[in-house]
Design a protein that fits this description.
- With about 230 residues, the chain is of the alpha/beta class.
- α2 packs across α6 and α3 runs antiparallel to α6.
- The chain is built from 6 helices and 8 strands.
- About 40% of the residues lie in helices and about 30% in strands.
Amino acid sequence: MPPTLPFGELTSDTIEALVALRTQPEQPEFWDELARGELLPQDQAFLAAVVARLEHFPAHRANEATTWARAIYPLLTLAEQGNIRAFAEVPMSAKIGDTELSGIADGALALGISADARAPFVVVIEAKRGVRATDPLPQLLGALLCASSLNQRAGQAVPSFGVFTIADIWTFARAMCTPAIEGGKVQMTVTLSREYAERTEATAIVRILQSLVAQALAPVEAERGAT
């Protein structure tokens, strides 16, 4: 049995032991392009109500479950398209080299025609705070490794996307994972966005989520059109 490594135990050192990790510069133009465009009127109205309820909400002092319910999950639902739905508490696992990665993503935008998430396209990790506080990035990278293994098409690497949240602050990540060759490590290249504050940039956050889902759906729609 390969050793199992839970998301909660991942650190920068353990990630670098698993994969050949490369971090690229921020590339603000990439995220700015995803954020372009207008929301539908009904989405604008819903989002305005969510943001209004955050005005006097102490997001950095509230517990994670309350912040998730009030600030994070409502925005994920605005990115639902086709059969891609917002989910919470999504179990994920993958074998990376001789190690089994396993854990639960706090949320995901994933293909789901029933009550279960399939093939997550965007994974979400919510940072723990207080005495349990740890860096959320290694956990997100672990979830992205799992998502990449699920979403590879015909052995070809495709981008995986995720976000970690600290209270109502969002940071997006793009990861490209290239399968290991001849016993080497998986090559993982990661690009992070800047921080987006939900109270003032909720529209940009939702547009990025919607654009990522649209990108994920494009190959599926193309395959349908070819049949």
